[in-house]
């Protein structure tokens, strides 16, 4: 028998070819929290809704839809079409574009079910990389959802950033954002968060959205609208899709990614949709068919068929007026609890006379808040007080409740004064 030489390498992919990757910071934070045995530890890292008892919340309407599915004698586990569950994608299209959208009425929109919002962003990025006449530069807000950088760079697109968060005001750097958009070359892709910006919780006003759209139209820029929190920001589905509706009404060609993780609590079911809207022009319907045919090829090569369960749950709710109304109430429950926690945090900090202005806690919106804490302060929050958040000071407001908000505020007060 032969033997393996002593100098043989275990793999051809050595450390120069395939170096050790850094652990994903967010999932590393989750692991550190789970290892912590302190009884008052607080998890403000992961972007998932928790109820006032710090427990995952299955929406009552989701439970009802689940019961209906299980009782359906025709339920099976066959493959979905490549583009997904049609009843789901059609309803999702109306939800995000608006039921009276001119893009839907004119047949200028196509929709593909994806692996949640992440898969939708990836499908759009892949299409832009493969079919753009010249690969466009992608502009991301500074800061943005960390995964944006990986998704767009992994398909070979160049990334630049535009100013977004003003550290002094802890609000929107609107002038900086507009100046960067004005300088972006035509055909560049501008990635925008239509509501509940991740990670800052800072959104443009409706008037600012109109100014952004007008400038992008003038500069011939392509909007990529990543919508992960419709209905979760304000509690109003129609208010939270204002930016998308406005861009469509202004005649843009655009794409948008849509997640049902947060607003349905279907985190692990990975239910999402990618939508492409072509501009109103002769031949628009033929154009959207061509684009859809290529999106189908990309989808087939990546996942073949999307998963069915989460889509069926969401479809039941979206297509039943009574269940839909119950879902809207569930959304108001979640968004309302988060708003109350914002008020509570601010009130506690003001009661403690914590140095600084804390108005941004209540002026920011949605699941996340940029606290303004520095990296050393965040480190002290974790090491001294067992409060876990991302190193940039972003917290998930859903991790706060009436049982820990006072403890959290006292911890913030301590590190602001002493670190």
From TrEMBL:
<dbReference type="Pfam" id="PF00155">
    <property type="entry name" value="Aminotran_1_2"/>
</dbReference>
<comment type="subunit">
    <text>Homodimer.</text>
</comment>
<dbReference type="InterPro" id="IPR015421">
    <property type="entry name" value="PyrdxlP-dep_Trfase_major"/>
</dbReference>
<comment type="similarity">
    <text>Belongs to the class-I pyridoxal-phosphate-dependent aminotransferase family.</text>
</comment>
<keyword id="KW-0663">Pyridoxal phosphate</keyword>
<dbReference type="GO" id="GO:0004069">
    <property type="term" value="F:L-aspartate:2-oxoglutarate aminotransferase activity"/>
</dbReference>
<dbReference type="GO" id="GO:0006532">
    <property type="term" value="P:aspartate biosynthetic process"/>
</dbReference>
<dbReference type="InterPro" id="IPR004839">
    <property type="entry name" value="Aminotransferase_I/II_large"/>
</dbReference>
<dbReference type="InterPro" id="IPR000796">
    <property type="entry name" value="Asp_trans"/>
</dbReference>
<dbReference type="InterPro" id="IPR015422">
    <property type="entry name" value="PyrdxlP-dep_Trfase_small"/>
</dbReference>
<dbReference type="GO" id="GO:0030170">
    <property type="term" value="F:pyridoxal phosphate binding"/>
</dbReference>
<keyword id="KW-0808">Transferase</keyword>
<protein>
    <recommendedName>
        <fullName>Aspartate aminotransferase</fullName>
        <ecNumber>2.6.1.1</ecNumber>
    </recommendedName>
</protein>
<dbReference type="InterPro" id="IPR015424">
    <property type="entry name" value="PyrdxlP-dep_Trfase"/>
</dbReference>
<keyword id="KW-0032">Aminotransferase</keyword>
<dbReference type="GO" id="GO:0005829">
    <property type="term" value="C:cytosol"/>
</dbReference>
<feature type="domain" description="Aminotransferase class I/classII large">
    <location>
        <begin position="40"/>
        <end position="411"/>
    </location>
</feature>
<dbReference type="InterPro" id="IPR004838">
    <property type="entry name" value="NHTrfase_class1_PyrdxlP-BS"/>
</dbReference>
